[in-house]
Amino acid sequence: MDGPIDPNLNRGEIPDRSRRRKKRRQSHGSAWHWKQTDTWYYTLPGTEKRVPLLDEDSGRIRGVDNKKAAQLALARVKLSEGETAPSESALAAREWLVAKVCSEYIQYCERGAANKTLSHGHKDGAVWVLNDLCKYCGALPVAQIKKGHVKTWIDSHESARGVEIGRTC
User: Fold this and answer.
1) CB 134 within 8 Å of CB 149
2) Within 10 A of 118 (CB to CB), how many other CB atoms are there?
3) Which of 27, 66, 83, 91 is the most exposed place for a label (fewest CB within 10 A)?
4) Distance (Å, rounded) from C-alpha 26 to C-alpha 70?
5) Phi, psi of 131, rounded to the nearest 5 degrees
6) Alpha carbon distance, N-terminus to C-terminus of the chain
7) What pTM did the predictor assign?
8) What digits encode the pLDDT tens for the residues 40-70?
9) 3-state DSSP call for residue 113?
10) What 3-state DSSP class applies to 32?
11) Considering Cα of 84, then 146, then 130, then 136, what sign does the dihedral take?
């Protein structure tokens, strides 16, 4: 090999690879053809799941030339299911609640205490605090919790136990 392909390599610069990245040609929810199976699909918004498009006889739509039939089948799917219903349900299934996060951390603490990598005092304190937090706002999605929620919860514990909560948060 006579020399580097990229002239910038001689100067010690990193070559720009952003030009080579593939960009999505169509948005989620539109019909697209997969050459490997010669079948038309669509992707549910908010997911990566491909769904084959079916004709009126419930057969898969095949062939690059059947773009109009695929678009018609996609319109039928969107009308029958409602265009926003799949994406909302898919996003809701992935949304974490405060209670789930607390539960995951409590399980982590219990495993750590069993393996002796975490103290039993820390585990007991975390269980008490997080269970109490879940009583206050456990049903909230994590994305919707605000600093004010946590501050109000801490301020509601003005007892001797409340000092411990303020110190641990």
Assistant:
1) no
2) 16
3) 27
4) 14
5) -65, -40
6) 61
7) 0.43
8) 988 877 777 888 898 888 889 999 999 999 9
9) helix
10) strand
11) negative
The answer to whether the beta carbons of residues 74 and 52 sit under 8 Å apart is no
Phi, psi of 105 (to 5 degrees): -70, -40
Q: Is 90 exposed, middle or buried (0-12, 13-18, 19+ CB in 10 A)?
A: middle
Residue listed under structure tokens 């299934």:
93
Give the CA distances from residue 48 to residues 25, 41, 44, in Å, rounded to whole numbers and listed in that order: 15, 12, 7
Phi/psi for 60 (5° steps) reads: -65, 140
* 135 token code pair: 């009583």
- Residue 91 pLDDT: 52
- Distance of alpha carbon 129 from alpha carbon 133, whole angstroms: 6
pLDDT of residue 134: 87
Per residue in 113-154, pLDDT (tens digit) is 999 999 999 999 999 999 998 888 888 888 888 888 888 888
State how far the Cα of 44 lies from the Cα of 83, in Å rounded to an integer: 9
